[in-house]
Amino acid sequence: MGKKTILVVGFCSFFLASCLCFATNVLSQNRSSVMLFLVPELTREDVREAYDSQRFPFLKQAALGELNIRSALSLKDIHNVLTISAGTRAAGSEWGRHAYGIHGRNGEGIALYRQYTGEIPPTLRNGSVLFPYMAVLRRSNEQKNTGAVPGLVGETLERHGISRAVIGNSDTNSQISRLAALITMNQKGITPEGWVGEETLIRHAFFPGERKTDYSFMYYHMARWKARGVGLIVAELGDLRRLGKYESVLDTERYALLRKQIVHEMIGFVGKLVAEAEPRQRLLLVSASLPDSEIVAKKRMASVLLWEAGRYGGVITSGTTRQPGIAANIDIAPSVLSWLGIQLPPEMKGLPLRVDRSRSVSHDSFWRTAELVDAIYATRPFVLYPYIVFSIIVILVVPASLFLRGKAEEIKRKATPALQCCLLFVLLMPCLLLFLSALPYLPSPLLTVLLLGGVGSCLAYILRKTSFGLCFLCVGLAGWLPVLADGLLGGELIRRSYLGYDPVIGARYYGIGNEYMGVMLGSVVLSLAMWGELRGKQRRGFLIATMLVLFAILILYMAWPAGGSKAGGILVFLAALVYGVFAFSGCSMRIWRVVLVVTIGLAAACLVFWLNYQFAAQEQSHIGRAVGELLGGNWAEIGRIIERKVTMNWRLILTSIWSKLFIAGLTVSLLLLYWKREKVKQLASPSSFFIAGVKTIAFGSFVALFTNDSGIIAAALAMLYALVPILYVLLRNENTVD
């Protein structure tokens, strides 16, 4: 009887255990999970070589993309990984590399954790990973006022009962580096389980430093965690970083061969896990940093690859960038939480990654776009600097020529046609830079400068043959019509223009930047003024009505999330409209009129801001999100936004070449008003609309200067559309009088 009881109990136990295992497997298959691979110093060239090698067909099943890795401080891995973990730009520390498993040598992790925190958490288990230096990261981000919360991903997952684990490191013989734990830890610096020490490495006598990742060890534990239903597994694959420490002492061919071997080993390891992925599992591979050689070569976008079970191909994008193939490091943490079905905490400013699998995008187009982004970023100074320097020289030389007397007057007379062409060329360049983006390939900087110079000179020569009013009406229309048309059609030309925004810098990814906002401000007012000059004073009412309609269109374009999406632009164009109505109508600025018009303008601004906020979260621009912060009473974040904008503008004023252009233009304007006051006044009688336009542009320029994060750029470009026509007509009048 006893044997039968034992047999029955044993059979029942076996049956229950089998049912439990089966239920666990079913639940783990139906539960969402994420594997995140952090690969320091992985480049796009590494990924492209493996992609083209035909050894890894699963790479063609991935969604491809590049990440902007801007942080609160620099592009270093310590800042980038903390930014990834916080979902907002953060400031890391070298102390962030030091995470320890409690099973490490001599209990080092527990001892250090108690030394620096004064406690031993009661929830520790065998296999937990500890980060003792949370106070350093918190203090660093408080001092920089970043708003980043270290440990936010791990803390959020813990509150929702989702487990997490970390494995691997980027240790070298001289330095510990275990940054993956920054993503999985909670706000106390604890990851429930993981392996981050020497146990994840193997000895390799023929590899520099003699230590490499033990992929068998990592695969065993990651497969075990996946089977148990761990929600987030982060693996740090650090062999490229280890190899990079010895690049300077290795033969170039030997280094390239070892790098290729490492990339293939790493890709093969990831591919093994991709092949075993469950239906609701996502695997994300992210380059955690870039080699110094890539930074020097102006290649500053990191690779990112995403595998989703049952979905193949496509390119990565996000609501942050709205550009196919481009996302931001602040989007990684929101993506992880979104994939696991968790609402994003308000401290995260990024948006979840999306995959664009439409017919208009492909892997081939992604590779071309990525190379183009790098090329534009690397060559931008070689194209823009000559243009800005040329503009400064022209607006200094032309007024100087107005003071020439005696024998020098004959030289001035002969040089006048060339100087007038140079003035026109300065205003035609923004339009030419926009259309340059339509070329099927990007010419070299030298060829670009020669091409722009040739086309611009020809157009300037043709326009110089026309009357003053018609000439600058055409120049004005060329400044804003193509920009508005391109913006309404998706902004493809602006996005790839040398004068547009840059995804590598990451200050803006969509809409209209400060450069073309300044161009639009100056050119639209100039075209209205010249149209008024050509039509005469009897059409003043129609001109004011046209201005109201046109500015309403531009303001709505600036407010539209899929259009200009420029909060500063809304304020600038509203301010210019308010001033322009008085200037063009000739009405005196009585207090009640000013108050009435300003009140209407502010009400209109509030309305367009509120309408922007009504869009869904994924469709909102940064304007709508800022309005949400304001309505939610998040004054700390509003303060950070204002601080960032003021700091950036002040830094540009102190260091940017655009400030030199603005100062040169302002100085020349003041000198003309002082020494050529009578001749400038003479422009007002037959050209009242012209002078009204000049005043409106000047007013709008100063509003742009103080209401935008890069306002000095907008102000410098807008000011040209007021100063250049004055110099042109003064030069013409001087030559006529002589």
Automatic annotation (TrEMBL):
The chain crosses the membrane at residues 384-404, 416-439, 445-463, 470-489, 509-529, 541-560, 566-584, 591-611, 657-675, 687-706, 712-731. It comes from the Bacteria. Keywords: Membrane, Signal, Transmembrane, Transmembrane helix. The keyword Transcription does not apply. Residues 1-23 form the signal peptide. The keyword Signal applies. This is Phosphoglyceromutase. It comes from Aneurinibacillus thermoaerophilus.
